[in-house]
Inverse folding.
């Protein structure tokens, strides 16, 4: 018998009820034996001593971690960490662990994957473990182990999903069938394998010489971002193939000649694609999260080991502090308060300007639109002047809404970026900060580069405001810069910890999942009336435009038809198409959140649910368009050729 | 094949009036008139044949009935409703001309999927799938993916999925394509079986013998138009000829018979020949014997009996069993697998009185293909293989014809 036939037989065997029953008994027996053996061992004198010594060492390390957590993230987080790490005695811990493994084994068995997992464990033991044992090949060993873990998780999730979709309703039947197609057809299997190896191999492209916080940021950004793009491409090709190929191969005839309305067919297909993405995202998300945690427990720059600073427990390393307070956290932002311009004064200034222009050009009409443009230009100029600080001069900026930061008692971060016209960007500019009575500090910063500046929570007043004086140069020493400097408006803010990184991460995954659902809906709708290659082209186009919409909207403000050199017809026609399309997807562009995660920015539930809701509504709308087309199709006419 | 009256006087299952389908190109120019103003009805409980050469409009007509195409003109109703109406699909089973199945599913998963589309509950689903797999002979290979099946095996699973919902109206497009003669015979027996249960069947096939054996009525299409319509008897029986089958006769007996007929009726014997067994029957006999001798094979297994749910047997058996248990009688032994009777004989034609004169009794016989009459009737001539002495002896006695049941004169 060929190996493939053997595997097929084993696969069928592990799904039979008698096998599952027998395997369950075996697992329960092994768990009982394991726990019993451990209890006996702990009672043996030598073993008990060794266990106790190990437990004490672990407890010391856990306490060091907790102390560091308390210093960087607050007592509440430290308490949680103590609870997590120092839960109970070694005997109970190991027994619970054995029981946990047994429970997982039972679940896997009843999902029909017992032999699959045994096979994967065998590969891990025979192939990965020997590679891991040697330094030269450890990288490969870890990659294979990571790939095995991801594969095992994915197969279990998929099986659970198929069981959940096992109800005898057409929508669920079609969704379940779509899931089966995904794992049994090559087109999607390639992407799934690519994703697994991409994630498993990504950690090994991180530069160990870089600060830990940068490595974590890079891993988060590429882990989530890279996974999204692989999954997005998989979604494009698979969502289209599952509908287009059925029409091309006439398999769809057997379905539509059954009592299945068109909307149920499309909904079932979409649900299958969404479920597949959910399973893959859960696995990759878990993988990225767990590896991030693993990275977190590596020594940062300036540490002897994780959370143990070279300078002593009271002086944690800067790398560790920034990692815990700026990356693996969720920070809200309070931008500086813009000055309020009196409308009456503004109107007066606009009219003055209109009179001045008419004096120079009597033919100028001065329409309402012209006045509006003048008003906008004046406001912009006023704001620019507000943010521009002359040589040797200081400017006061106020930040509000920081009560929560004051209550948290944790340091806040002032984030800023300065420009100085046409100066060499590598030039260092001297900036002096005065914040209340507590902070007076000089910084030498490079131009056009985002900088951060830690402030103690004590600088926040009772009403939640912070006033920051920014000086061009150092008034204390008289060292001033050669030119006025301008503070970038969008990057001048105070950031404070407003939540946990874990929930932030979950919200990001939810948005990513809904984005993939939207792409899937576009693919399915396109394939109701387009052939496979054309539908792929259209859907990829939507994907790229949607992802780039934020950039496009900004760029189109500068790409105008009316230029000094004359009327640019190409720009005019391009804008006719690009402007409505990019604005149609502007809401999608606002949902680019992977960068926020790496920057430790809070993504609250309100914007998350709003974004997810918008994506869901858009998906339903697109599917509705597909349904309206599909129900009128003469399916026997179209062959996709 | 005797024509059977429809089992009820209800409205027809399919009613088409002036049905037309014109295929147009992208610019809406008319390119092909596939179905041209046809009127047809498929009555409840009948087996209806749809014949025609390639491109005659058979498949187009079927696709219009199923809603896979939209008509250009005329009227078309299936169960009194628009063919696109989803509710009527519950009552229809469809086997397309090719097996368009999901290659990545195995047989059981395929049937399970389609059963779920009908929202059949779990218990009934499992039962029907087991019975259908047995019926089509795929139980042993049910866990193999469809992509690994031969064409014949794929047709079998196609037949099974067409029956999963126990449809009232079954549309079979080339059902025996790809099947060996055993499988083809089983399909024909199944069709007849289902017909007896009152199912309405629309059968389209190029295998004319299959159609002839099964259908009650048929139409023959050409160029999108109906060229002939009626029962097999109406269309195929040559009213001007009679075929008589007897035990082997020698030349003299044939000559005597010829003389008798000429004297009594003025008719002559045009042709005398030895009857031939059909190749299909020979094939089946050989296979049956091989199976009896338990010769090994790695191919498809013999199909089982018609699935119980299609026979309506399961509920009847259960009721009977309960009745017996309540009354205290021992439960009956398992019934023998029911096999459909072979196709019944062609009915006796005209001139029955003359035949009764000659023959003692008529034995049921398989229909013989009639030799088509070509040109004027050839003058009677003696067959070289005939025993003339017998025929001569027959013609010596000019007495009254014997009564039916009497021994033939020798």
């Amino acid at each position: 018998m060929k190996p493939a036939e053997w595997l097929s037989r084993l696969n069928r065997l592990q799904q039979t009820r008698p096998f599952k029953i027998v395997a369950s008994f075996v697992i329960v027996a092994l768990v009982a034996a394991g726990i019993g053996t451990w209890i006996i061992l702990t009672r043996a004198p030598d073993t008990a001593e060794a266990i106790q010594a190990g437990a004490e060492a672990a407890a010391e390390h856990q306490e060091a971690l907790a102390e560091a957590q308390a210093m960087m993230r607050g007592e509440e987080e430290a308490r949680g960490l103590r609870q997590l790490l120092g839960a109970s005695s070694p005997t109970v811990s190991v027994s619970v662990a054995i029981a946990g493994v047994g429970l997982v084994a039972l679940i896997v068995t009843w999902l029909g994957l017992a032999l699959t997992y045994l096979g994967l464990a065998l590969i891990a033991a025979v192939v990965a473990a020997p590679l891991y044992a040697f330094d030269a090949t450890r990288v490969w060993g870890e990659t294979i182990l990571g790939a095995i873990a991801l594969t095992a998780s994915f197969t279990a999730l998929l099986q659970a999903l198929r069981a959940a979709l096992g109800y005898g309703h057409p929508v669920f039947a079609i969704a379940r069938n779509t899931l089966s197609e995904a794992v049994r057809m090559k087109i999607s299997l390639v992407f799934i394998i690519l994703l697994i190896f991409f994630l498993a191999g990504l950690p090994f492209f991180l530069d160990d010489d870089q600060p830990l916080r940068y490595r974590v940021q890079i891993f988060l950004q590429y882990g989530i971002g890279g996974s999204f793009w692989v999954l997005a491409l998989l979604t494009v090709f698979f969502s289209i193939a599952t509908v287009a190929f059925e029409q091309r191969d006439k398999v769809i005839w057997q379905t539509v000649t059954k009592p299945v309305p068109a909307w149920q067919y499309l909904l079932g297909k979409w649900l299958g694609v969404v479920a597949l993405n959910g399973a893959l995202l859960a696995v990759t998300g878990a993988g990225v999260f767990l590896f991030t945690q693993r990275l977190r427990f590596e020594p940062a720059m300036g540490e002897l080991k994780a959370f143990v600073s070279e300078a002593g427990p009271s002086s944690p390393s800067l790398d560790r502090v920034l990692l815990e307070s700026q990356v693996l956290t969720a920070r809200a932002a309070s931008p500086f308060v813009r000055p309020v311009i009196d409308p009456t004064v503004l109107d007066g200034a606009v009219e003055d300007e209109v009179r001045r222009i008419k004096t120079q050009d009597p033919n100028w009409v001065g329409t309402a639109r012209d006045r509006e443009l003048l008003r906008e230009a004046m406001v912009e100029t006023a704001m620019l002047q507000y943010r521009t600080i002359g040589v040797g001069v200081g400017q006061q900026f106020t930040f509000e809404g920081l009560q929560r930061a004051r209550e948290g008692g944790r340091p806040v971060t002032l984030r800023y970026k300065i420009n100085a016209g046409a100066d060499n960007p590598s030039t260092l500019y001297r900036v002096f900060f005065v914040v209340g009575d507590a902070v007076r500090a000089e910084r030498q910063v490079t131009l056009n580069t985002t900088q951060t500046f830690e402030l103690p929570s004590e600088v926040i007043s009772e009403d939640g405001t912070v006033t920051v004086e920014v000086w061009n140069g150092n008034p204390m020493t008289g060292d001033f810069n050669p030119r006025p400097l301008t503070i970038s408006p969008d990057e001048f803010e105070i950031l404070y910890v407003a939540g946990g990184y874990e929930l932030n991460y979950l919200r990001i995954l939810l948005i990513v999942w809904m984005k993939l659902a939207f792409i899937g809906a576009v693919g399915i709708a396109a394939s109701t009336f387009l052939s496979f290659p054309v539908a792929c082209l259209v859907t990829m186009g939507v994907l790229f435009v949607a992802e780039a919409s934020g950039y496009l909207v900004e760029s189109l403000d500068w790409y105008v038809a009316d230029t000094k050199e004359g009327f640019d017809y190409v720009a005019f026609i391009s804008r006719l198409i690009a402007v409505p399309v990019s604005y149609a997807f502007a809401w999608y562009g606002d949902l680019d959140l992977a960068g926020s995660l790496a920057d430790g920015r809070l993504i609250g539930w309100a914007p998350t649910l709003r974004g997810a809701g918008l994506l869901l509504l858009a998906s339903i709308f697109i599917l509705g368009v597909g349904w309206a087309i599909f129900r009128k199709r003469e399916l026997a006419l179209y062959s996709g050729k | 094949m005797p024509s059977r009256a429809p089992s009820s006087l209800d409205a027809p299952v399919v009613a088409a009036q002036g049905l037309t389908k014109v295929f147009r190109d992208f610019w809406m120019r008319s390119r092909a008139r596939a179905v041209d103003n046809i009127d047809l009805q498929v009555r409840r409980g009948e087996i209806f044949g749809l014949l025609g050469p390639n491109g005659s409009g058979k498949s187009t007509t079927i696709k219009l009935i199923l809603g896979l195409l939209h008509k250009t003109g005329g009227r078309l109703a299936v169960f009194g409703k628009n063919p696109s109406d989803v509710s009527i699909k519950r009552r229809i089973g469809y086997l397309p001309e090719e097996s368009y199945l999901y290659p990545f599913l195995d047989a059981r998963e395929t049937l399970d999927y389609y059963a779920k589309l009908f929202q059949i509950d779990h218990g009934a689903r499992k039962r029907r799938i087991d019975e259908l797999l047995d019926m089509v002979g795929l139980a042993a290979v049910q866990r193999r993916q469809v992509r690994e099946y031969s064409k014949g095996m794929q047709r079998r699973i196609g037949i099974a999925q067409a029956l999963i919902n126990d449809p009232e109206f079954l549309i079979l497009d080339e059902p025996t394509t790809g099947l060996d003669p055993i499988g083809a015979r089983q399909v024909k027996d199944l069709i007849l079986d289902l017909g007896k249960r009152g199912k309405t069947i629309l059968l389209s096939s190029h295998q004319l013998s299959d159609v002839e054996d099964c259908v009650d009525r048929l139409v023959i299409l050409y160029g999108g138009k109906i060229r002939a319509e009626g029962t097999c008897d109406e269309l195929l029986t040559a009213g001007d000829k009679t075929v008589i089958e007897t035990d082997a006769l020698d030349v003299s007996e044939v000559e005597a018979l010829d003389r008798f007929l000429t004297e009594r009726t003025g008719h002559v014997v045009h042709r005398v020949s030895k009857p031939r067994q059909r190749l299909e029957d020979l094939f089946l006999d050989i296979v049956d014997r091989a199976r009896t001798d338990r010769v090994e094979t790695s191919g498809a297994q013999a199909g089982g009996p018609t699935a119980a749910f299609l026979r309506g047997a399961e509920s009847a058996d259960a009721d009977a069993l309960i009745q017996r248990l309540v009354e205290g009688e021992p439960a009956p032994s398992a019934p023998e697998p029911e096999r459909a009777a072979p196709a019944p004989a062609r009915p006796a034609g005209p001139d029955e009185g003359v035949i009764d004169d000659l023959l003692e009794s008529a034995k049921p016989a398989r229909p013989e293909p009639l030799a088509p009459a070509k040109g004027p009737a050839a003058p009677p001539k003696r067959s070289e293989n005939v025993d003339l002495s017998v025929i001569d002896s027959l013609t010596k006695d000019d007495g009254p014809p014997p009564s039916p049941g009497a021994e033939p004169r020798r």
